Amino acid sequence: MKIKAFLWTFIGLSAVFPIFAQQARTVTNADLEKYRNKRVQAERDYEQNYARMGFPSPEELKKQIEKGRVEREALSARLTAERIQREEAEAARAAAAAIVQPSQNVYVVPGGGGGYYYSNPYFYRRRQYRPVYPFGPVYQVGNGFPISNYNVFPPPVRQKPFDMTIK
If DSSP codes are grouped into helix, strand and coil, which group holds residue 131? Predict the structure, then answer.
């Protein structure tokens, strides 16, 4: 019973829809003739009454339209060039950020060198090669020697010389 009702509904709806479907309307030149006549009459009125209406003459209007077109083209070219320049700068920044800098320990010549850095982890000190491992930033003072918290040894304890005098 439900199937019959469904089929009759489907057949009824499929028969009704073509009634509402219309053919595409064909537009002919005769239909467009009245619009062309109105446009031609409006152009004629404009040419005769442009000064009275406060509008520019047709020649001035054409010049203004051409000037606006040239300005728009120049603006479009300038904006396109700026966009391309921005995209190139962004690509250069992205490429620079993508370059991986090689990790290299930087060593400071302690006790001199005026803050010059070198990458050799050993230096000659007290007749032996000892590594220097910087653990903090290097600071420069007025005399040019680096001061930092690397390789800091406590100062030796100074003792008074042994006094041999008897008191």
Answer: strand
Q: Which class for 59: exposed (0-12), middle (13-18), buried (19 or more C-beta within 10 A)?
A: exposed
Q: Which helix (H) or strand (E) holds 108?
A: strand 107-108
Residues 6 or more apart whose Cβ sits within 8 Å of residue 148 = 108, 134, 135, 136, 137, 138, 139
Work out the average pLDDT over 145-163. Answer: 55
pLDDT digits (tens, 9 = 90+) for 52-61: 888 888 889 8
Nearest to 136 by CA among 151, 124, 126, 123: 151
Domain count of the fold of the chain: 2
Residues 47 and 86 in one domain: yes
Please, what is the average pLDDT of the chain?
72
What is the spatial distance between Cα 102 and Cα 66, in angstroms, rounded to a whole number?
Answer: 58
- 80 and 113: one domain? no
Give the dihedral sign, CA 7/13/18/24: negative
| Phi, psi for residue 100 in degrees, rounded to 5 | -90, 120
Rounded CA separation 32/97 (Å): 63
